[in-house]
Amino acid sequence: MFKSYLKIAWRNLLKNKAHSSINIGGLALGFSVAMFIGLWIHDEKSFNTNFKNHEHIAQVLMNKTDNGETRTRYNHPYPLADELRRVYSDDFKYVAMSSFPGDNVLSFKEKNLNMHGAFMEKDVLRMFSFNMLKGSLDALNDSNAIVISASTAQTLFGNEDPLGQAMRLNNDAVVTVKGVFEELPNNANVFESLAAFSETKKLDFIAPWNLYVSMYDWVRTARDRKLWDNNSYLVFVEIYNQSAMQSINQKIEKVLYDNVSEATKRSEPQIFLHPMKDWHLKSSFKNGVSSGGAIQYVRMFGIIGVFVLLLACINFMNLSTARAQKRAKEVGVRKTVGSNKNQLIRQFLLESLVVTFCAFLLACALVVLLLPAFNQLADKQLVFPFAKPLFWSVGLGLILITSLLAGSYPALYLSSFRPVKVLKGTVRPGKSTVSFRKALVVVQFTVSIILVSGTIVVNQQIQHSKDRPTGYDKNNLIMVEKTTDEFEGKYNALRDALQKSEAVLEMAESSSPMTEVWHSNGGYEWEGKNPDFTTNIVSFYVSHDYGKTVDWEIKEGRDFRRDFASDSTAYVLNEAAIAYMGLENPIGKTIRWYDGEHQVIGVVKNLLTESPFEPVKPAIYSIDYNETNWINLKLTPEKNLAHSLEQIEVELAKFAPDVPIDYQFVDDAFGNKFKTEERMRKLSGIFSVLAILISCLGLFGLATFMAERRTKEIGIRKIMGASIPNLLKMLSKDFVLLILLSGLVAIPVAYYFMQQWLENYTYHIKIPWWVFGLAILCVLLVSLFTVSYQVVRAAIINPVNSLRTE
Amino acid sequence: MLLQLNNIFKWVNSGGQRIFLLKDINLQVEEGEFISVMGPSGSGKSTLLNVIGMLDTFDEGEYHFLDESVHTLKEKHRANLYKEYIGFVFQSYHLLDELTVQENLEMPLLYKKYKGAERKAMVADMLDRFNIVGKKDLFPAQLSGGQQQLVGVARALIANPKLILADEPTGNLNSQQSEEIMELFKKLNQEDGVTIIQVTHSEKNAAYGSRIVNLLDGRKV
Fold first, then answer.
1. How confident is the model at residue A806 (pLDDT cuts 50, 70, 90)?
2. φ/ψ (deg, to 5) at A129
3. Which of A278, A440, B101, B178 is a Cys-bridge partner for B170, taking CB atoms 3.0 to 4.6 Å apart?
């Protein structure tokens, strides 16, 4: 019996090639989308789980409240780690400080390479359970040691044994390789909390903390003088008892507050542990509490995956039911020869299983084929989990559930035919079937319209933020980080040389890169300031030529000038700072800071240096040639770009021969800020197209069904004088109504979700009403195109033929 | 003269052979005639009726309807012609199941672009003439076969056609119902001057007409 069912199922598949391919193809599309999303979510969820002690590791974060606004930060004062180690040794197995990771120059013989790494206390190797390929977990005990990743070892030493090799770090200290660790996988990042700073580079080396202290005076000062108010270090901990996270949080809450100066106490610093499992998915904080992060995308895409699969299932139901009339005769014959209802249900379910299975195989093939493209799109390195039992068992479950879900309705419906009626050929599907299937179509189009309008909103938001005025000219602007001190004191010579080469119009130095903010300070005082107001203002230390180089817009007053000696202590403020400080007629006003009095000489339009989705922070620009980290270069636009870059490299090398030059285009760096959103736009765009495609397959089924059902009616109407346009209008009206109804359901849902999403961005668009109009119109046009084939065919058929059947 | 068929041929090709559905049909119909087309199954009666009704095409010959040469007309023009002058009555009534009696009657008027008030008046008049006012809100399924065909005839007449084409209008009816419909046809023909061409198997029904056309294998005999 089973064999006979299988045979019929197979022959049915082969006989109706168009129908089968729509059915299997639609379902396979749904499966592939679900698989891609599933793989992606699995990867997102697996972040940092390969650290053996991941459940016990946390990063120490701090909430600071200034003027009623709480911000969460991860940089701490030097003595904090010691304090935690000393007082709470029962709770913490390890406490380890780390510097901010960054590019440093490793030099070995003639090789000078920019390598990404950090200075960390020795316990980090045990804490993060680094897999040491060479050397031991104690490798960082020696303060002139360094541990490097396997790929760094390969780059620096080739096939030589790296252990014991000596090299220079930042042209300053000499370090000896004491260990080689296995590369961290893509989904592991010790500095995940800095991911907002696009800190996703691989860790190339770890240098010992003591070296950091001996190399940098300011670090040594912070240590020796126990500076509790200088926040420059990251702190990681490993706790003994995973469940104690909350209670430890309560214990340590006040540690900072109890030690900081009176001034800092006003911002009520509060520290807490951010467990490793949340590093990747819940990295955002709003007003001091976790506000999600990547988890939002995981949820969103999870929902999309389920819905797209649901759409595919609905399709399957619709198409199978639509073909009911063709199968009716078979049902009649089977029933008259003695099959009962259950046997028929089993038969149809088996057919559904066969189709689902084929679709699953096809989907696997599609996923394998498209995975590289998807990886590129999603910026991942996913592999098809051929050998993972989990994948196959989930897949099997998916097949069973889908075939049951998609096959049950057609099975029940088909098996309920009465043999006498079907054999006489008078069976006509009742109203309930039709409305059930219309409801399914409404669900499909609701989802499609939500996705399409979502894509439009994401697009609008990105465009809106991209069109936002930056306050400076990103074009032809490049920046080079000064990774060694070889550039120190050579500013004018360098500027002259570069300008003489004609590759560069103007050069300036600055403390922060154009697209980031590295420094902010408190403690500013001015006339009319509320004494209770604690200040926190971004600081940019720049050279005299900064304004000309980045082409900022002076709103009031003037730019820095060399011929005014007093400009060395002058301030240029941005508009945000003027508003923040409440200054009227700011030019000539005096601002006091720890180091003395400063005169405001100019106000510039806000320079967009951080997130394009957030308001620009108040900022002070001042002249300080000793605090600059970046060289900014305005290229001569008429010159050949490659040639200019070459010339610049030559000139820079003359000043710092041992430093590899890494330049970055400012507009690229600015564009990188939209990466997540761009990815979101692409993915949601693709999913929308797929959703529409799948829905249209279903609609095609419904149209076929409708055309069959209404053949007689169309014939009669035609003989009564209906013209073809009349009929097209009549037949399309139903579909248009269905889609409009879907639109009605979709608008509030889409509005709610998109509003939620936009809330993540302070600088965001208002959702314009036309988005929904456009989405509905899109879906409407595509679907009318889809049904048009069936509708036109039904309308032009000669009534003589359609009415002859009786 | 209402219409004239000259040497009409219609065929299909099947297995390399040409099978004639209509063969050299010549027929002239004057206004006010009541013609019965008779013949065994497959003799081409319905095909002839469809050709006359311009629902079907023919392969050779000439067809003049009023002053128009149908064989030279474009599809659209032809449709306008039959919409204006011809009403159809079917063996299985072909009422729309989803529409009430009143709505079924109104439907052809919608396609002929009559105004709402006009349509109402014409439908009311038909309901009156056929004595089915009480049934106007019923659906076809709630009527007997005879009543359904009554509505079918009313629908065919509502736009005042010059010609009624009826394909075995009483085929699904019992003898009493048949008689009523035939009486109605006779009355329409004699009192209102409507030209009628009906296809029938029954000698008795054929006798209501003024002329009988016999077909055999697509040929007039």
1. very low
2. 40, 55
3. B178
DSSP-assigned states of every residue in B10-31 = EEEEETTEEEEEEEEEEEEE-T
Other CB atoms within a 10 A radius of the CB of residue B64 amount to: 17
Q: Where are the domains of chain B?
A: 3-220
The CA-CA-CA angle for residues B69, B74, B75, to 5°, reads 115
What are the tens digits of pLDDT across the range B115-133? 889 999 999 999 998 889 9
Tokens of A214: 């001996």
Q: Nearest CA to A72 among A277, A254, A288?
A: A288
| Chain B residues with beta carbon closer than 8 angstroms to that of A720 | 88, 107-108, 111, 155
Q: pLDDT per residue over A771-794, tens digit each?
A: 999 999 999 998 888 888 888 888
Interface test with A, best of B78, B98, B111, B114 (most A CBs within 10 A): B111
> What's the burial of B160, exposed, middle or buried (CB within 10 Å: 0-12/13-18/19+)?
exposed
All residues of chain B having their beta carbon less than 8 Å from the beta carbon of residue A722 are 111
User: Taking a C-beta distance cutoff of 8 angstroms, is the pair B70, B120 a contact?
Assistant: no
* Statement: the pTM of the whole predicted model exceeds 0.90: no
Secondary structure of chain B: what % helix, strand, coil (to 5)? 40, 25, 35
How many residues does the structure list for chain B? 221
Q: CA–CA separation, A611 vs A624, rounded Å?
A: 25
Those of residues 161-220 in B touching chain A at CB distance below 8 A are: none
A800 secondary structure, DSSP code: H
Range in A424-428, A451-455, A506-510 the model is least confident about: A424-428
Distance of residue B208 Cα from the nearest chain A Cα, in angstroms: 26
Give the nearest partner residue to A800 out of B56, B95, B112, using CB atoms. Answer: B56
Size of interface A-B (CB pairs under 8 A): 38
Cβ atoms within 10 Å of A263's Cβ, excluding its own: 11
Q: Is residue A36 exposed (0-12), middle (13-18) or buried (19+ Cβ within 10 Å)?
A: buried
Q: Token pair 């299909």 is at which residue?
A: B12
Q: What is the topology classification, in CATH, of domain B3-220?
A: Rossmann fold (3.40.50)
- Return the bridge partners of A633, or none: A478, A507
Collapsed DSSP state (helix, strand, coil) of residue A561: coil
